[in-house]
Each structure stands twice: as C-alpha cells, then as structure tokens.
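In this section we walk through a basic example: taking a raw amino acid sequence and producing a predicted 3D structure, encoded as discrete structure tokens. The instruction is simple. Fold the sequence below.
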Amino acid sequence: MNKYLLALGISFGLSFANTIPAIAVEPAPVRGNARVEWSRVVNNPFDGQVVYDKHFKNGEFDFITSWSPTEIRATFTRYWQEVVGYRTEWRDRTYYDRKGRQRTKSYPEQVPIYKQHRKDFAIASMLIAIEGNVYEYTGGVVSPELANALANAPTEQNIPVRIVFIDGATEDMEIGKGTVSAWRRLFGAENKTFSEASNLQR
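The resulting token sequence is shown next.
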C-alpha cells in the first residue's frame, strides 16, 4: 500500500518525541444538527464551494467534515451520559379485585436523572484510503495529488478515513457515497475554484 504525505506549510523549531503536535486540521464549520445540504456541492458565502458530510451513531459520536479545494475541515465529537441522581415518579397499575371490578393503584418508581456530555477531539491529521493508496492530509490547501484522488475515487462505495488525534489515538470512520460522488464535481479539473486553489501552491 502506497502512502502519500501531503502536509503543507513550514514548521519552525525543534521536534521532540514527547511533544504534542499542534492542531493541523481545522474544526468543521457546521455541527451535526446544522440545517445544510449534506453530500452535495453548495455555495457558502464564506467558504465558497463546499461539500458537508456527516458520519454518526446516535448518542455515541458524530464525524463532521467539510470539503473544499482550499481546505478540508473536520470535527469528531463523542457523546455520553451519566446518572447524577434519581427522581420519584408515580405510576398507575390496573388490577381486578375479588369481585372482578377494575381498580387502579398508584405506586412510586425511581427514575434516573441523566447528565448529557459532549466532547470535541482535536484532529492532527486524516488518512484517506482510496484504491490501495493512503493520502495523509494535515491542513491547508488540498494538494493536486489528493484532489486528483478525490475526483477519481470510486463512487459505488464509502471511502475509509482514519482520524489521528493530537495524542496519537485513532478512530476509523467513513465518508459516504453521496459525498464521494460530489468530490468529482468539486475537485474535477473543470472546477474553476479548484484550479485557482491549486495555483496558490505554486
């Protein structure tokens, strides 16, 4: 399996093994509950042409990405809940007495009180696996190599993405087929926005 390193920019200073890397991938500009068109090329007044993608499991996590020729942005959010107490709720139970008459009896029940938690995790890089090749994105303008791979990715399947967090931990996610199809329009050679973004790297 080939691996392409597509990091952009200049870093200054010394690098040590125990140094925590800086955040490289900017957070996505939208949340999972945003009212946007997912997996379609849209024109954003601030970001230009962009595709939003959402990969999630209700109550557990969501992985939100935005794709544009000038930048890929991503946010991984973990959700969980904890019991912080109990409250008493009264329930009704129906029964029949010895004479066959229907009766109702109330009884108390302890119901847990939950506190909801949400945490965003900073992303250092993303590994994108396309047709046997792995492309590493660490921020900045999308390189011609990665853009070409995105534009020609097979649209009949989801694309695996491995998130690398700043502490070195990883999570394997997917980009849906709808977004993969939208990449062709967004990163294709005929896209003027992509051509202009590519010129910025020269």
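Looking at the output, two observations stand out. The chain has two domains: 2-10+22-80+120-199, 82-116. The chain is about 15% helix and 50% strand. In the next section we compare this with other chains.
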